[in-house]
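User: Before I run my own analysis I want an independent prediction to cross-check against. Here's the chain; please return only the structure tokens and, at the end, one sentence I can use as a sanity check.
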Amino acid sequence: MQRRQFLSATLATGAVATAAGLGLLRPQLAFAGDVSGWPAKAFDAKVLNDAMMASVGKTDVPVSPKVKLTAPSIAENGGAVPVTIEVDSPMTADDYITTVYLFVDHNPTPLASQFSFTPASGQAYIQERIKMAKTDNVRVIAKTNKGELLASAPREVKVTIGGCGG
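Assistant: Structure tokens:
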């Protein structure tokens, strides 16, 4: 680095620090609840029924063979539990899945994730890793463009303590 580059970088850093110190630069926090369309109430819910009501509008959704949830019976690491979701749908302009919700019944925030789809998605297929606080049921609800709700059967995932099988 040359002397002139060093001096200009030092002066620029000093100017920014001074402006921040004088209150001319104020950081602003971005909260998810402030974003248009963000389902903050559903993600903030602490109880499964509240999360389901806030996201899909009901707590009892019929199980459908079209919704396939794959998760391990035993997860050695509750911090990264692999989950695969597949919803059988033609994904045409007239018939497609719009939203898929993944719930973990007794997690501190039961709504673990929400995914949106369009016919251009081609298929309603998701692979992800979720965090689970303890052994619990995992369940999926899919919503069609016609408003129909389809659910997977709940799947129990046993989370071992410390990954030691205990």
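Sanity check: Helices lie at 3-21, 40-44, 48-56.
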